[in-house]
Amino acid sequence: MTKETFTGNSIIGSSDRKGNLPVKGVFDYDACKGSLSDFDLLKDEIVSEQLTRNIQFFGIDSQRKVTKSFVVVIGLGGVGSHAASMLLRSGVGRLLLVDFDQVSLSSLNRHAVATRDDVGTPKALCLQKHFSSIFPECQIEAKVQLYNSSSEEEILSGNPDFVLDCIDNIDTKVALLAACVRRGLKVLSATGAGARADPTRIRVADLRESTTDPLSRSVRHRLRKEYGIEGGIPVVFSMEKPKAKLLPFQGPNGEDENPSDYQIVPGFRVRIIPVLGTIPAIFGQVMASYVVTQLAGMSVPVEPVVNLDLEHYRVLHQRLLEHEELLYGSASQVLVDVEEVRYIVKELWHGRSARDLTPKDVGRGMWRSVNELMLVRWNQAKPATVSNLILLKFKEAEVHESMTLDDVKDKEPDFFAMVTDVLKRAEIDFGW
Known about the structure:
By secondary structure, the chain is of the alpha/beta class. The protein is 39% helix and 12% strand. The chain contains 16 helices and 11 strands. It has helices at 29-32, 45-50, 52-58, 60-67, 78-89, 123-134, 152-156, 170-183, 214-227, 278-296, 310-328, 338-348, 364-369, 394-400, 405-411, 413-429, and strands spanning 3-7, 24-28, 70-74, 94-98, 139-143, 162-165, 187-190, 202-206, 234-238, 373-377, 389-393. A 7-stranded mixed β-sheet has the order 5-4-3-6-7-9-8, sandwiched between helices. A two-stranded antiparallel ribbon has the order 1-2. The chain starts with a strand and ends with a helix. 36% of the residues are buried. The model is unreliable at 1-33 and 259-271 (pLDDT under 50).
C-alpha cells in the first residue's frame, strides 16, 4: 500500500484542542481511490475537525452522506467556480470539474479562487490547483473539455449524485439538461446572472416557474420543442429584470465588430455582458447550498414563486369570511387576517390548489387561477386557523366539505399525509 508523508496542512493526523494542525502525518492514497462508499473520510480527525460546523448542522450521519457523494460541475466561471468551491468546503468527497475555457483577466471580478497568476490557465486546472490546498482529501478530477454529445458519456458516467449546469451557452445547456433527464440524473441549472444587481430576487424553482428570466424562457422552449421536456428541472434564477443591456463588441482597433469573428467555439458569447461579480457568486452559493442539503437528506422548502399582490390575498380572505358565514352562520371562527392568508396561500400552497401543486399556472396565469380558488377548513370541527386551512378550487372545496377526514384518510392516504405534513409545518412556524 502506497503511503506518503507530508508537512504543513496537507496531512492527516490528530490536532490539539485549539485546532492547530500537527507538523507531520500520513495520508493513505490507496484507501481513498475507487468508490467513496467504502471509505469514511470523517473517521479522520483533521477532516472531521475541518467539517465540524457542518457536522453540528447536519449531524454525523447526514454529513457522511455528503462526504461520500460525487458531484459534477460543468461550467467554471463566476457561478460554477463559487458553487464548486462551497461544495468542496462542505465536504463533498468527489468532484468532477469541467470547462473548456481559460481564466481571463476580466473574469477575476467574479471568479471564486483565480488570481492574476492563473490568467491564461484552464479554469478546471485552476480550481483543481487551489482546491487541493483547501480540502486535499477530496478526489478532484479536472477535464479541460467542452460538453457535447461526443463527450456526454465520459462526463456523465460514474453515477454522479448531482450535476450542476453552470453553462451560459443555450445549445450546450439544453443538450446537457436533456441528457441528465434521459439518464435519470439529478441536475440543478443556473440561468442568467449577468446584468443583475439585486441579491434578494434570486430564487430556486422548477424551470416552468422561471418566467421572468429570458435565458430560462429560451431553455424551456427548446426543451419542450426538441425533447418533449415540460419541466421537473430545478433552476436558480433572478426575478429581477436585467439592469444593463448587451454591449456592442469592440475589436482590438476599438471599432465595433462582429463578436462571432472572435469566438473560440461557435455560439459562445464573447465578453459583451456586463456583470456585477457579486451576483454570479451568490448564484453559485445558492446552488451549493441547495445541493449539499439535498445530499444530506435535509428538507429545505424553497421560497415559492407566487406572482400575486396584496389585493389577491384580500379577495381570498373576504371569500373565506363569506363562505364561513354561509356555511356556519358566522365568521367568528375565522382566526386569520390578510397577512396570515398571504402566508397560507404563498408559503403552504404556493398559490395553487392543494390537489394540484404542479407549477402549470405561472405569471398572469396564476392571477387568473385565483378566481377559481378558495380557502376552506381542513378539519371542519376546528376553527379556521393558519394550520387548518387548505386552498382548493370551488368544486374541490364542495367535495371536501361533503366528506369527513376519516373518509379522506381511507380513500386518499397519500393526499391526507401530504396535507397533514404541510399543516404541521404551519404549526411549527407559528409555534403552536
